[in-house]
Design a protein that fits this description.
By secondary structure, this protein is an alpha+beta fold. The chain is about 20% helix and about 30% strand. Strands 6, 7, 8, 9, 11, 12, 14, 15, 19 and 20 form a 10-stranded antiparallel sheet that branches. Strands 21-22-23-26-27-28-29-30 form an 8-stranded parallel beta barrel, surrounded by 5 helices. Strands 5, 10, 13, 16, 17 and 18 form a 6-stranded antiparallel sheet that branches. α6 packs parallel to α7 (about 500-515). The protein is globular. The two termini are about 40 Å apart. The structure holds (2R,3S,4R,5S)-2-(hydroxymethyl)piperidine-3,4,5-triol. (2R,3S,4R,5S)-2-(hydroxymethyl)piperidine-3,4,5-triol binds next to loops.
Length: about 725
């Protein structure tokens, strides 16, 4: 059993393969956090805490004579508010009498087999492996609210999930103003924070900074998890490297507005609070009602590589679901960068014919296929094929594509509407906009108010209608603007603070209904590239378009940042044209292939315009991707260098799950004259096994891991190389 409760000390211990999490109910009933870190045997970690009299840190009434006992300096599991803990709080609420304070004390707990689920929200699931759940119930007597803290312990995976449920056990309405998923404390140590910021076309750029005194806030109020701040942070020991050092991952499984606050306080303690953003959040909690927070996925690992491995394995096996979870992902051709809105049946078929010749398996018809969609100013909302572009209708085109031996995928952007659309003309109140105010436009489109039941019904019927009518096995689901002017005509004014979250509850419901009804359809998530790349979306779409930037050199950095949290199988990566449409950079086809093969692979260029030589190379790339996919998707990633200005190359390696095969990659990002030989030490091989290296030489794993490998001199425009490492002593 991975969860223990010691009745005599009132301490809970949650144990994973290498880690341990401890908390205890103290003499006043507060749930104190004791420890999260590598295993410490049976030790009760209370011994590590001594409390001092801290002057301005006040004392609970029952402890008024013990000035060293203060909530303001105590490590806690979910914090009180308004009662003397002045650090970032996990929850805030206001009550019928106008008061805004509550303190939560232990009431009961339960230890359950299996993993809890969260009503209405995606969460990590178990596959029947050893997983246990701890539920601790806390209560504030005066305010009459209870909080259930959920802990899911995935022992083998070294993962602990957390979520909270806030229950109004009184007879008056409670207004929730903040409802975080968890509080995690690191009372001792010197820490850095890594977060993943960015912008459209440059998502998830890693940044590592020492935690200063004060509050670091990673936030999105854009109505999406966002290009700007991914809902994932790492707090690591200042000395931590890829290979060693305490590293804590905090991943919020949510796709809407989020906030992570990391406070380094006056006594050097670090508190991490994460959850739905409280900016503009206000939730009416009626008597007898519960509010469920999104889930947080925590891991504690020795080194950043191990931390990534923990997330990669969990996301592949316990987050992603459905037919495509572990299976081969079809190599696809997407027409977006080949045609943009300029679609004709003839053009599409010319690309599709070539694609089939080259071994590609699926054709994705992107934006522009529906009525009135000749640019991005009109048409969203009316999902009716444009017969000017497709004279034989969508069905006719799909038949021809299927006849070539290709499967068919379709782009949609269901959450949006253009004012110039029949949908908007019929239901102007279905679009989000504040009363008496011209809405902020973005890509000249508005967001549908998915918090409304009618909008949910309409979207379900429309998408299900397309999937019923046509032979579609792939949907690329786009979302091309942030949500502003948040307002729903279906909620009264005091409840407008619920709309942004209700939007996501209905989006998840929509996805859930569609994926259950059409299990053979593979969904690709997308939001102007990777603006909604998060564990919430991955519960429904096994892969996500990583970025609208397809330049392989930019992509290296984007995919590098993405790799800290998300496995390669979730990263849609395509070979596009050179010069690249976003950056104008020219790169060799081989380099574009090497970079895109570190994901779920495809093409996005006009294949019908390529030379015979390029076509022959693409045929080889497709074959090679199919051979490498099991290593890349099921194996382990090792980042052997960093990307960025301080290095002139990026090198990374995948090792197959059985360690019998590895593929070593390099891309020279800044070719140097007369450079020193580029040398890397491989990782993750079997030390005593003998490997053949690119048909060049043979040696054992330890030689490659200690002595390393020196690349030949690579010159020219952004050259790349893959090295095959294949075990031969079996
Ligand atoms: C943004 C996506 O990220 C692109 O790949 C493409 O689908 C366009 N939208 C289409 O409008």
């Amino acid at each position: 059993m991975s969860i223990r409760f010691d009745e005599s000390t009132k301490a809970f211990t949650l144990e994973t393969k290498t880690g341990c999490y401890q908390m205890k109910v103290d003499e006043l009933g507060y749930l104190q956090h004791l420890y999260y870190g590598p295993k410490v045997g049976q030790t009760n970690m209370s011994y590590a805490f001594r409390t001092y009299d801290h002057g301005f840190s006040g004392n609970p009434y029952d402890m008024r004579l013990n000035r060293a006992y203060s909530l303001d300096s105590m490590a806690q599991e979910y914090t009180s508010f308004g009662v003397g803990d002045f650090r970032v709080t996990s929850i805030r609420a206001s009550f019928a009498d106008g008061s805004r304070c509550a303190e939560f004390r232990y009431e009961s707990h339960e230890i359950l087999d299996g993993k809890y689920a969260i009503p209405g929200l995606p969460s990590v699931y178990d596959n029947g492996e050893e997983v246990h759940t701890l539920v601790v119930t806390l209560k504030d007597i005066a305010a009459n609210i209870k909080i259930k803290l959920y802990y899911g312990v995935f022992a083998e995976q070294d993962i602990i999930t957390r979520a909270a449920e806030i229950f109004n056990s009184g007879s008056d309405i409670v207004w929730l103003r903040k409802a975080s998923s968890m509080c995690l404390e690191l009372p001792f140590g010197k820490w850095d924070m890594m977060h993943f910021h960015g912008r459209h076309c440059m998502e998830r750029q890693p940044e590592r900074v020492p935690l200063f005194h004060g509050i670091h806030t990673i936030v999105s109020g854009r109505g999406m998890s966002s290009h700007q701040h991914n809902p994932f942070v790492i707090v690591c020991d200042r000395e931590a490297t890829e290979d060693a050092g305490a590293c804590y991952g905090v991943m919020l499984m949510y796709s809407g507005n989020h906030k992570t606050e990391i406070e380094r306080d006056q006594f050097e303690g670090v508190r991490i609070v994460t959850g739905i953003s409280d900016d503009r959040f206000r939730w009416e909690l009626k008597p007898g009602a519960s509010f469920h927070t999104p889930e947080v996925i925590l891991t504690c690992a020795n080194g950043l590589t191990q931390l990534s491995h923990n997330y990669h394995r969990l996301i592949r096996h316990n987050v992603v679901r459905g037919t495509y979870k572990l299976s081969h992902r079809p190599v696809l051709i997407n027409n977006w960068e080949a045609t943009y809105f300029d679609i004709t049946e003839e053009k599409i078929l010319s690309i599709a014919e070539k694609a089939k010749e080259l071994g590609i398996e699926l054709f994705v018809l992107d934006d522009g296929w529906f009525k009135n969609r000749n640019d991005d100013n009109a048409g969203l909302g009316d999902w009716i094929p444009d017969t000017n572009k497709l004279p034989n209708g969508l069905g006719g085109l799909i038949k021809k594509i299927n006849a070539l031996g290709l499967r068919f995928g379709l782009w949609i952007e269901p959450e949006m509407v253009n004012e110039d659309s029949d949908l908007y003309r019929a239901h102007p109140d279905w679009a989000m906009r504040a009363p008496n105010r011209a809405p902020m436009m973005s890509r000249n489109q508005l967001v549908l108010d998915l918090s409304r039941q009618e909008v949910l019904d309409y979207l379900y019927e429309t998408i299900a209608g397309l999937l019923e009518k046509y032979n579609i096995t792939y949907i690329k689901w786009d979302f091309n603007r942030s949500i502003s002017d948040v307002y729903s005509h279906s909620f009264p004014s005091p409840r407008q603070g619920e709309v942004a979250h209700r939007y996501y509850l209905n989006l998840y419901k929509l996805y859930d209904m569609l994926t259950k009804r059409f299990p053979h359809v593979l969904f690709e998530g997308c939001a102007g590239g990777g603006g909604r790349f998060d564990a919430g979306m991955l519960a429904y779409s096994p892969q996500i378009w990583c970025s609208d930037n397809t330049d392989p050199i930019s992509r290296l950095k984007i995919q590098y940042g993405t790799s800290f949290a998300y496995p390669a199988c979730t990263v849609c990566a395509h070979v596009s044209a050179s010069p690249n449409h976003q950056t104008g950079r020219k790169t060799p086809l081989s380099t574009r292939g090497v970079v895109a093969m570190s994901g779920s692979f495809g093409y996005e260029l006009d294949l019908s315009l390529l030379t015979d030589e390029d076509c022959a190379e693409i045929k080889e790339q497709v074959k090679r991707y199919k051979e490498l996919e099991p290593i890349v998707h099921d194996g382990k990633l090792y980042r052997l260098s960093q990307t960025g200005d301080s290095t002139h190359y990026y090198s990374w390696e995948y090792v197959s799950a059985d360690q019998n095969r590895a593929v070593l990659n390099i891309v020279v990002t800044n070719p140097l004259a007369n450079s020193a030989p580029v040398h890397v030490r491989l990782k993750g091989l079997l030390p005593d096994a003998v490997y053949r290296i690119n048909d060049e030489f043979e040696c054992n794993g330890s030689a490659l891991m200690i002595g390393g490998y020196t690349f030949p001199r690579l010159t020219g425009d952004y050259p790349a190389m893959q090295v095959d490492i294949i075990r031969i002593d079996r």
